[in-house]
Specification:
heterodimer, A: Aspartate Aminotransferase, domain 2, 2 domains, seven-stranded mixed beta sheet, four-stranded antiparallel beta sheet, B: mainly alpha, Sufe protein. Chain: A, two-stranded antiparallel sheet, 11% strand
Chain lengths: 406, 145
């Protein structure tokens, strides 16, 4: 098990106060906090070896390039990709999905084709597909989900056909916490020759990800949900697909030779990394990955699961007017709920007054909210550094709110 | 129609005094605003339509008006109690005034009670939208004469 007190010491923000109360940060599904080592890495880079990568013939450039490329190798190992060239550095999950939609999607989608997404996708795994589908005369069709918040597998199988070119689903839902059976989803999609993109924004810091065992065609995630910096992430793609895809953005770095008669493109991964990259955050991302490795994903997952189970039980027992959304068998540490007669915004504001940070609203999943006839929910999402005492204070806060306004 | 005895400035000072009693405690302030919200009479469901929604608010806020004897009557509702509480304060200050009084009103109580720090910048923008919409109605009635 994780020594939570030790782990907490790595995060300076966790000993701060908000509104006169010790911060209780339960908005980890939106972004989690950064350990000091990650922030230090940013400062060390800018203070010590700031330089452009891949091109300078000097010592600093070499040092920056090595540190930059080390992150790629760390990410390759982290998701067990076959080659480091299959790891494309991006601004985050959203850019990764847009990249695949605008390149692979553009290449394969034709009039009448279908992109399947689940009803519980984040807008970032819906809208990029709608944009390219509209342009190509294709359509984006949702896979229905059950009341508990699980993909209805028979419905998924029924929707699969040779018209389906892409299946894009999340590994874990940001709004419900559901862990989707991605291996089975991928296997079924491959039977009709559809390619599968897995949105790993909510899984990478919480579950062990093995892209080869999963056999996904694309996997995307964001650094800032993995104790890393914002504006940073990566796309994994199978080499043969990435090679076949046209470039996404044009510019420096992504070319082999440029002339006015025509331009040839660089090899993987640089073909998809136009322009000077986000060097500092890439290096810090690598440090975040090492941080996760140090504490162990299994340990992190076990602690988060214990927190989720404890909070779920306690909420059901002490706040009977709460209704939980997302009661799947397998969940990441997301607890989404509404309370009778009190709006989710108001609950969020009242908890904030006690230093408790939760997310309220539609969580960028409006189709999912519509599925349940909801405007939004209150979402508490836990990370490895959260404690059972914090959950107690959170539930106490809710009990008080219900007493006053329920 | 009851005759207004206090002017816009006096009502605002009254509100400032009430909030002073809360001693800047954030939780008490939010609870108080929510109570004000719960006390605001609901509007008819039939008035909760898109054309009555105030744009620029994160929550849904519906505002309707009547024009009686040269005075503007405001009715409002929201799906959240905090927002209802906020607009109830504006109604308390601006209700049953002449269009000219509303147009010229200098609304200082919001800053004086430090509400920006309590409700955050997004909701503060929403509050500004409420004021804008109320003044817009007043302007429309003043044009009617």
């Amino acid at each position: 098990m994780i020594d939570v007190e030790q782990l907490r010491k790595e995060f300076p923000i966790l000993s701060t106060e908000v509104n006169g109360h010790a911060l209780i940060y339960f908005d980890n599904a939106a972004t989690n906090q950064k350990p000091k080592v990650v922030v230090d890495a940013l400062q060390e880079y800018y203070d010590g070896y700031n330089s452009n990568v891949h091109r300078g013939a000097h010592t600093l450039a070499d040092k920056a390039t090595k540190a930059f490329e080390e992150t790629r190798t760390l990410l390759q190992e982290f998701i067990n990709a076959g080659k480091s060239e299959e790891v494309i550095l991006t601004k985050g999950t959203t850019e990764g999905i847009n990249l695949v939609a605008q390149t692979y999607g553009r290449m394969v989608l034709n009039e009448g084709d279908i992109v399947l997404v689940s009803t519980m996708e984040h807008h970032s795994n819906i809208v990029p597909w709608q944009l390219i589908a509209k342009e190509k005369g294709a359509s984006v069709i949702p896979i229905p989900i059950s009341e508990e918040g699980e993909i209805i597998f028979e419905e998924y199988e029924r929707l699969l056909s040779d018209k389906v070119k892409v299946v894009a689903v999340n590994h874990a839902s940001n709004a419900l916490g559901t862990i989707n059976p991605v291996e089975e989803i991928i296997q079924k999609a491959h039977e009709v020759n559809a390619k599968v993109l897995i949105d790993g924004a909510q899984s990478a810091a919480h579950l062990t990800v093995d892209v080869q065992a999963m056999d996904c065609d694309f996997f995307v995630t964001s650094a800032h949900k993995m104790f890393g910096p914002t504006g940073m992430g990566f796309l994994y793609g199978k080499e043969e697909l990435l090679n076949a895809m046209p470039p996404f953005l044009g510019g420096g770095e992504m070319i082999k030779e440029v002339s006015f008669d025509g331009t040839t493109f660089n090899e993987l991964p640089y073909k998809f990394e136009a322009g000077t990259p986000n060097i500092a955050d890439t290096i810090a991302f690598g440090v975040a990955v090492q941080f996760i490795n140090k504490w162990g994903r299994e340990n992190i997952a076990a602690h988060e699961k214990a927190l989720l189970d404890y909070a779920t039980e306690k909420l059901k027992k002490e706040v009977p007017t709460a209704k939980i959304y997302g009661e799947a068998q397998n969940k990441v540490s997301v607890l989404s709920f509404v309370i009778e007669n009190i709006h989710n915004y108001d609950i969020g504001m009242m908890l904030d007054a006690r230093g408790i940070a939760v997310r309220t609203g539609h969580h960028c999943t409006q189709p999912l909210m519509a599925r349940y006839g909801l405007e939004g929910t209150v979402r508490a999402s836990f990370s490895a550094y959260n404690t059972f005492e914090e959950v107690d204070k959170f539930i106490e806060g809710l009990v008080r709110i219900v007493k006053m306004f329920g | 129609m009851a005759v207004m005895t206090k002017n816009i400035e006096e009502i605002q000072n009254e509100i400032i005094d009430e909030f002073d009693l809360l001693d800047g405690d954030r939780e008490s302030t939010i609870f108080y605003i929510m109570e004000l919200g719960q006390d605001l009479p609901a509007i008819d469901e039939s008035d909760k339509v898109d054309e009555n929604i105030i744009k620029g608010c994160q929550s849904k806020v519906w505002l309707t008006t009547d024009f009686v004897d040269g005075h503007v009557i405001f009715n409002a509702d929201s799906n959240t109690d905090i927002t209802k509480g906020l607009i109830s304060l504006l109604i308390r200050v601006l209700n049953n005034r002449t269009p000219q009084e509303i147009i010229n009103a200098d609304l200082f109580f919001f800053d004086k009670i430090g509400m920006n720090g309590v409700i955050g910048s997004q909701r503060s923008n929403g509050f500004a939208s409420m004021i804008k919409q109320m003044k817009f109605y007043a302007l429309a009635y003043s044009a009617k004469g």
